[in-house]
DNA sequence: CTGAAAGCGCTTACAG
DNA sequence: CTGAAAGCGCTTACAG
């Protein structure tokens, strides 16, 4: 490993001060352009590596942004992350990622790490049960936060998410318009704002159509393909045999469709299945999945922009418009079909 | 934002030196246990936040490990990342993730960022075309590297991956044993060691069985669901109408199965389709996908352990055993069926 | 346009 | 067992 090269190495070699080198490398107009070029060329030639820790210690800006979500392996978050990445790349911020798996302790550890590293900000999809104090604590220690996908009441920071109640109502209404009257809701939880909103949207649409809502038709839980797959049996033996399922998300819907297929049933023909999110793979699923576009890219883009704005000292209102979901009709929903 | 609390704040309040506080907080036996407890309690009470930048500047260890892969959104890498995460959590390393999307410049930028942050090491699945010098450069600047999934000839660092040639031969042989003689290869590239090895394994198995290999039966490229889906038409119009497809990975296989389904064909009955990787979703795909287990968790686990070992000053040989793939027979393969 | 000097908040010999 | 002091490698007033 070569001898450590620092600013003073360059300064000594070129007979200038470290102040001049520091300014030159950052393209300051304070340095004469000839000097600047001479310095930059030399730095490149000897392979100088800028020490961000030292700089950050001095300036107290680190160029690091933290992003914490439930699970980056989940394509829903992965799609959001992709657009966050695009946005942060643009403002040359490095981002550190973490899963919290809805474990508050893991989330706290991560926020702690960010504070220790002097991160500039954090984008989080808060773990279930996150108290507003956890977010205030970050803010109070100089770590501005922006929320995605879920809100935390009382946190008073900007949150970017879709209008879940409206979106699930859209999905439910689509099934009702096809003629379904017995509609199940598969997946989700009351532990998050999102979960409560989606169930509410489903109930609203049912009641608005004069249909009764049977609490037994709710199968809470599933949020993954595997869980949707595993819920198939329970769905098929539900009282009153619902003819359609509003699923928590595309993953659980695809899992359910796969499960139905194993049982000899085809979604869209024997049972209507509707998802939520409109993941990239929804369109190529078998059969193509009817779903509700949830604006992942939009969420990521807006959240990252808002955080960058906050980093630049701009005020960003904690009141943010919900993103407007849209129905995407494909092949997994159709007229009701009675099973026996 | 509260007044900045540092070691000296605590030292002053308790009438001890910063050295003692520093040692106490790190549980040094050099500090009397009563003093230690007094310090730790006080630190917690006033909400002290450890400044890792300052510490790292002094010790030149940062507790940061970089991980760069083609695309974290790809479940293949996501599964590897999950086991890397488990391993790094154990040794309390923070990890920074990045996609390179096979863009050498993006990969270089990331390595640069790691160097600037004083990262302790990097785990990388090198971008296509990565020259060994890129890896030497990192190593020479004190950033030990460990490779996953792909190797870089001449890099002389440990690389953890499966025996691709053997694995694809397994897959191909399985089809041959079922009676297939015209077998296509869908997806992959010659740009990586993995790509070359897999094509070689396919050819080996075909030739060993006395079957001819038609270059036209190779459809290079697809590595995603969408691409596998899009390749369906080409596959169906291949000269000599192959009855089976060895796919690059599970994603392209699932995409192809979905495409076949749209064309009214069912994998395992009309066409045999075999994947590679054995992703979590392979078992619940429709139909359940026959594939080759590629040891993602094993790769992640071994790579992270090896890096941690290197960080602790242990020697890790650049010669690493290949992970032994295993066949997983499910429903997407069967006896040959002639189409017309 | 350039330089000398202080300081960011830690840790680590060294002395006692 | 504890303290005084130097130093990690930058940046930023300040002076010239």
TrEMBL record, chains A, B:
Coiled-coil regions, chain positions: none
Pfam families according to UniProt: LacI, Peripla_BP_3
Keyword Amino-acid biosynthesis: no
Alphabetized UniProt keyword annotations: DNA-binding, Repressor, Transcription, Transcription regulation
Bilayer-spanning residue ranges: none
InterPro entries: HTH_LacI, LacI/GalR-like_sensor, Lambda_DNA-bd_dom_sf, Peripla_BP_I
Keyword DNA-binding: yes
Occurrences of domain HTH lacI-type (ranges): 5-59
Protein name listed in UniProt: LacI family transcriptional regulator
Protein source organism: Mesorhizobium liriopis
């Amino acid at each position: 490993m070569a001898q450590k090269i620092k600013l003073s190495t360059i300064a000594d070699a070129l007979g200038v001060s470290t102040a001049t080198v520091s300014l030159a490398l950052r393209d300051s107009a304070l340095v004469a352009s000839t000097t600047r070029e001479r310095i930059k060329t030399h730095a490149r030639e000897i392979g100088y590596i800028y020490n961000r820790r030292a700089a950050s210690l001095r300036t107290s800006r680190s160029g690091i942004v933290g992003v914490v979500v439930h699970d980056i392996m989940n394509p829903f978050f992965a799609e959001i992350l992709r657009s966050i990445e695009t946005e942060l790349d643009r403002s040359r911020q490095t981002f550190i990622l973490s899963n919290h798996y809805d474990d508050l302790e893991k989330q706290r550890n991560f926020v702690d790490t960010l504070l220790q590293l002097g991160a500039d900000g954090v984008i989080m999809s808060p773990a279930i049960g996150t108290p507003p104090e956890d977010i205030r604590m970050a803010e109070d220690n100089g770590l501005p936060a922006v929320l995605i996908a879920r809100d935390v009441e009382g946190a008073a920071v900007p949150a970017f998410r879709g209008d879940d109640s409206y979106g699930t109502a859209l999905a439910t209404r689509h099934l009702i318009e096809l003629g379904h009257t017995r509609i199940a809701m598969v997946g989700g939880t009351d532990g998050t704002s999102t979960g409560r909103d989606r169930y509410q949207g489903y109930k609203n649409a049912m009641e608005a159509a004069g249909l009764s809502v049977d609490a037994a038709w709710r199968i809470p839980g599933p949020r993954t393909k595997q869980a949707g797959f595993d819920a198939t049996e329970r769905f098929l033996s539900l009282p009153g045999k619902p003819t359609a399922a509003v699923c928590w998300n595309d993953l659980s819907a695809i899992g359910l469709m796969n499960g139905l297929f194993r049982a000899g049933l085809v979604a869209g023909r024997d049972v209507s299945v509707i998802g939520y999110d409109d993941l990239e793979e929804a369109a190529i699923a078998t059969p193509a999945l009817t779903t509700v576009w949830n604006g992942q890219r939009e969420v990521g883009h807006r959240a990252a922009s808002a955080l960058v704005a906050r980093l630049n000292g701009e005020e960003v209102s904690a009141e943010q418009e919900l993103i407007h979901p849209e129905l995407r009709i494909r092949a997994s929903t159709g007229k009701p079909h009675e099973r026996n």
